[in-house]
Each structure stands twice: as C-alpha cells, then as structure tokens.
Design brief:
The protein is an alpha/beta fold and 254 residues long. The protein has a single domain, classed as Ribonuclease Z/Hydroxyacylglutathione hydrolase-like (Metallo-beta-lactamase, Chain A, 4-Layer Sandwich), CATH 3.60.15. It contains six helices and ten strands. It has helices spanning 26-33, 41-50, 87-94, 106-113, 168-171, 200-212; strands spanning 8-12, 15-19, 61-63, 82-86, 121-124, 128-131, 134-138, 147-153, 156-162, 216-219. Strands 1-2-3-4-5 form a five-stranded mixed sheet. A five-stranded mixed sheet has the order 6-7-8-9-10. A hairpin with a 2-residue loop joins β8 (147-153) and β9 (156-162). The protein is globular, with a radius of gyration of 18 Å. Bound molecules: zinc ion (ZN).
Length: 254
C-alpha cells in the first residue's frame, strides 16, 4: 500500500487552523511498521507551514478528525494551540475496539491528557460550529469519534473527510473518473473501508450526511489531491491517472 498523508491548513479571519497533524518522523515509522516513506514528522510540518510563511507557533487551533497515528502525531509541536477533538474519540483511543489498538499511539493520548482545558483542549460532543464557516460533523464510522471538517470557501463547502472515505473511489465507486474498477452495483451508494468501529449501514449514512452538507470532497489519502486546489477542480479529477493507490509496487529492477 502506498498513500500520501495530508494535513490541511485552513486560513480566514486572521486564524490559522490545522486539520490533522500527520505522522511521526519516518525513521520511527519505518522501525515500527516496516514501511518506507518520505517526509513526515516535525520537519515535514515545519517546512510545509514555512511555505505559507508560518511557524508552528502561528497555529491557534488544531482539529483532529480522529486520533489514529497517521493523523494525530506531532502534537508536541503545538503546545499552545487549542486541540479540538470529539470526546468520544478520546475515549475510543483509551479503550479502542480491539482491531484498532495498533492505530492509537500512546504519544497522542498522553499529549491530549496533559493539556489544560479549555485553552489547550476542547472536547466536542457531536456536531459543532467551531467558527463561522467552519463546521464539525460527527460521523462515527471508521472510528467511534470520527469527525469531518466542513469549510466554507469561495468555491463552495469543502469537506475534509479524512478516513471516512480516504480515496475518491470510496465516494464515487461507480464513476470511472474515481476508480479504474467502477462497480455499477454501487451506483448511488458508497464503498466503505474495512477498518471500522461502526456498522456498514452507519458508515453509509455518515457519507450521505457529509455529501448532503458539502459541495467538495477532499479525501485524506488520495494521490490526486493537489497541494493547492486549482480553479477548475470541483469534485473529482477527470481520470484516475495519478492515483498510485491501485498500482502494485514495481519489482526491483535488478
Ligand atoms: Zn484512520
């Protein structure tokens, strides 16, 4: 499996909000998970923020879509930011469904527990209007306390859907623009992931609710997500080209 891991900087009205904080430094990930990669860690975040003229100290709020290790590490870079997470997700991280124990790392839990309320940690129960134009939708599915961030933009309401459907093919499983294996039986429905805490029906309902409340879907781990969204981009790219998720790793050349 090869996936990018996106974090999102949301700016408006003088606020800098980070949605998800990504994964630990690659050497640690490589040791623990026996995978290879590039980027990540403090350095990855610092350099990405620097491209916007920011340092970690400029981030006022961190919204965690959920607390899996690839979305919620590096919190120590933001000691003064206010972290916003669903109360149910924190409980799920402390006492996860057994199949998800490996995805919740102690560093994330320890960091959140040590934060002072309410300036450094806000625990949210259900849907929540964080600021005008920034809405959190509670969508138990992939995890018990999963939340999707809906951001009002000039182009429409963008849903940062995280792992509720981490590639376009989950949202548009019958659409050849989204997948090279369109499934007609899933017309009008969604593909759900197999890492989940809730039932498939609950997951389907959650995705429907997100589409009903947004105009643009931004999955967490699709290679086609551009680093900045071009003007003509509205929902899904015109072809599956560029999404490496389905491409089997090439055998070594020698
Ligand atoms: Zn996840």
């Amino acid at each position: 499996m090869r996936d990018p891991i996106h974090c999102w900087l949301v700016q408006g009205e003088g606020r800098n909000i980070l949605v998800d904080t990504g994964m630990a430094d690659l050497p640690l990930i490589e040791r623990r998970l026996k995978v290879q990669g590039t980027g990540g860690g403090h350095e990855g975040l610092r350099s990405a923020l620097a491209e916007h003229g920011l340092t970690p100290d400029d981030i006022g709020h961190v919204v965690l879509t959920h607390m899996h290790f690839d979305h919620a590490d590096n919190l120590d870079l933001f000691p003064n930011a206010c972290v916003v997470v669903q109360r149910r997700e924190l409980m799920a991280a402390i006492d996860p469904v057994p199949s998800q124990r490996i995805y919740y790392w102690q560093t994330t839990i320890d960091n959140l527990i040590a934060r002072k309320r309410p300036n450094q940690l806000v625990l949210v129960d259900g849907d929540h209007d964080l600021f005008p134009g920034i809405r959190l939708l509670s969508v138990p599915s992939h995890t018990e306390g999963m939340q999707v961030v809906i951001v009002s933009t000039e182009k429409g309401r963008a849903a940062l859907v995280s792992d509720l459907g981490d590639h376009y093919r989950y949202w548009y499983p019958a659409d050849p623009r989204a997948t090279d294996r369109p499934q007609r039986s899933l017309t009008g429905a969604f593909l759900t992931g197999n890492i989940r805490s809730e039932s498939e029906r609950d997951w389907q309902k959650a995705m429907r609710r997100v589409l009903d409340n947004s105009d643009i879907v931004v999955p967490a781990h699709d290679f086609r997500i551009p680093r900045s969204i071009p003007d003509e981009w509205f929902a899904i790219p015109e072809s599956t080209a560029g999404d490496l998720a389905h491409v089997p790793p090439q055998p070594p050349s020698n």
